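Sample entry (270 residues):
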Amino acid sequence: MLVALSVELFMAPNQLAPGGVSGIAIIMNGIFPQLPIGMMMLFMNIVLFIVAFLAIGSRFGAKTIYASIGLSGSIWILDKFMSEKYVITHNLLLACFFGTLLSGIGMGLVFNRNASTGGTDILAKMTNKILPIGIGKCLLAVDFIITIFSAAVFGADKGLFSLLCVILNGFVIDNVIAGLNVCKQVIVISRKSDLIKEYIFKVLDRSCTELISRGGYSGTEYNTIYIVLNRKEFIKLKNFIKDIDKEAFITVSEAHEVLGRGFKEINEED
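Predicted structure, serialized as tokens:
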């Protein structure tokens, strides 16, 4: 819905085509206004899925099909009920910035659930299968070609703003995904490590790694605890340690991606 609102409120009314199937549909709508954007997106996604199944194979996630058809359907429905009065701005810079922000957040949420909105992602995978080029570069190349067509149909200014949308969209998506997956990597050195482990197991319902360490100056042996937690769990652990051992030594760093039990599975497809 966020991506659909971005298309209907910002992109399509200002003839900005920031890559993807939605960009192609906006360009086609500019040439043939009688064709609804949502209907064209749905048709193109269906064709792309058929070609992809034949060219790449059947290992396509149901979530990607669901997300791409859901996006096309949402735009189709909004096409029916939203008129010109709902358009927020006709300033190209504002439309580019806020439309990309809204779209990037929506796409970041979808990508974070190991799905995609289909479209040019499929074309990028097909190109990657045929040519030794990374998927990211393939996707940028496909979207760049779409913005060139946008410039040919809508003019150089709108084409350049469309290209800016493509570039900004990548930054927004990356930051949304990174923000959703940030965890705290915590190392605790304490004389009361047994109590801390018990709290981790029974209250936080997490596991941890225990390391035997020795103080460089004192020579005293300690049980050092290493654990990865989300932000809320870390705050709980920090407050517990503060209550039971004010001499504990804690270091905290951010982990931008965590794979393994209790977090994202290692064998999950990106």
